[in-house]
Amino acid sequence: MATVGIFDSGSGGLSVLKELLKLLPRERYIYYSDSANCPYGDKSPEFVRRRASDITRLLLDKGADIIVVACNTATAAAISALRDEFRDTPFVGMEPAVKPAALGTRTGVIGVLATAGTLKGSLYLDTKSRFQDNVRIVERVGRGFVELVENGTFSGPEAERVCKASLQPLLDEGADRIVLGCTHYPFLLPVLEKIASEHCISLNGSREVQFIDPAPAVARRTALLLPAGKTAAGGVELLSSGSTEALERSFSFININK
Ligand code: DGL
Question: Which residues touch 129 (CB under 8 Å, ≥6 apart)?
């Protein structure tokens, strides 16, 4: 069993940890939430790179054999620099799931919800340029989504109002596949699905909207890169640069909603 170091700006990366635990339940996990600096979405790439490097060093010092960057914004800003700096360490990052969305769409329009940092990053722009001849891609920043999740507001009128403001324009443009390009957003999936299903009903059921979360693919990639021959007792350790309250609340939420 190996030790997997995993980090995010906050508790969003637990949506990736959940998939890792399903696929690789016996490994040891050290999860680091940079909650003192959350959100990353509007911070400079230099700032996010510095944090990603410091957190990686901390996770390696604690025995991590592999690092999962469970944050689209940090992947966009820092994964190449991390691979250059820590040459002996395998890294797995988040990929915007544009490909499965492009393959699945029936309307020819796909929506992407992500942070401003991710949408501006070359990783996303390169992926987008590979598909935009065949499908129309419409984007929105999930404004306020990260704050909802960090506050433990996973449902209710406030979550619906905030989610609708970013999702409805994508639905109105005809998007029938929506990429969740931020690891916090899967926590809001029930709310997002409710808004999408109301939209589909308003179209007399002539459309079906699906949300795509890349976390299961990231877990499969981690399984492939996991170093063999390591020994560690399984379990999950939760660390944070700030309060661990949001982290523990979100961790219980993913356990309840298994
Ligand atoms: N969960 C992160 C992501 O996947 C970061 C969100 C944020 O801190 O703005 O992008």
Answer: none
Tens-binned pLDDT, residue by residue, of the chain (258 aa) = 899 999 999 999 999 999 999 999 999 999 999 999 999 998 999 999 999 999 999 999 999 999 999 999 999 999 999 999 999 999 999 988 999 999 999 999 999 999 999 999 999 999 999 999 999 999 999 999 999 999 999 999 999 999 999 999 999 999 999 999 999 999 999 999 999 999 988 888 778 999 999 999 999 999 999 988 777 677 999 999 998 888 999 998 887 666
* Token pair in block for residue 256: 């309840």
71 in active site: yes
112 Cα distance to chain centroid: 12
DSSP state of 227: P
pTM of the predicted model as reported, rounded to 2 decimal places: 0.95
Distance 175 CA to ligand 1 centre (A): 23
Q: Which residues line ligand 1 (CB under 6 A)?
A: 8-10, 12, 38-41, 71-73, 115, 118, 146, 182-184
